[in-house]
Amino acid sequence: MPWGLTRFHHSGENHFVTFCCYHRRRLLTNDENRRIFESALERVRRSYRLYVYGYGVIPEPVHLLLSEPQRDTLADALKSWKQGVSRRLIGDAEHFCQKRYYDFNIRHYPQFVEELRYIHRNPVKQGLFDRPDDWQWSSFRHYATGGEGCVEIESEWTARKRERAAETLRSAVELPHSSQNRA
After folding, report:
1. What is the pLDDT of residues 54-87, one digit of tens each?
2. Which of 52, 74, 108, 137 is 20 to 30 Å apart from 10, CA to CA?
3. What fold does the segment set 14-174 form as a domain?
4. Among 97, 94, 78, residue whose Cα is nearest residue 40
5. Percent of the chain with pLDDT over 90
6. Cα distance between residue 39 and residue 120, in whole Å
7. Residues 6+ apart with CB under 8 A from 17
8. What are the structural domain ranges in the chain?
9. What confidence tens digit (pLDDT) does each residue in 111-139 have?
10. Helix, strand or coil for residue 17?
């Protein structure tokens, strides 16, 4: 990390993360490589117990909006993700991603929304598609429809789904009323 910059981990804040492929190569140009990216992100989400609020996979660079992991540090989680993707895409012979990454803490909700919009609009800005919902390699469709993809996105949709599941579980395990206990 350059001199004078400090990463603020264990702050309880979310992080906007950007990183590039090694020597800015465009390694995420095909669907299979993007699927590998998503499955590795989901593996890291579960393993490090972090929330993924948004992501966007374009050929170069990658953008993520994440919580801090409940296990280890964000740097550890990103290192694990990069190593997993690298092994699956190019083996041990070369590097997939730059070792470093750029991140900054999201300190308030308007900034969170701004960065999420940036992530979702980036494929349009890069000329990949005309509208964000045409690009399937981001979290945009989840926010637009509540649809589930390979990566679990933490959103109001996900929270409501969890609440409904908890209500169903509670009603299934409720004890029968005393009037039903007559045998």
Report:
1. 998 887 788 999 999 998 888 899 888 877 877 7
2. 137
3. Alpha-Beta Plaits (3.30.70)
4. 78
5. 27
6. 19
7. 63, 64, 65, 66, 74, 78, 101, 102, 103
8. 14-174
9. 999 999 999 998 888 888 888 888 888 99
10. strand
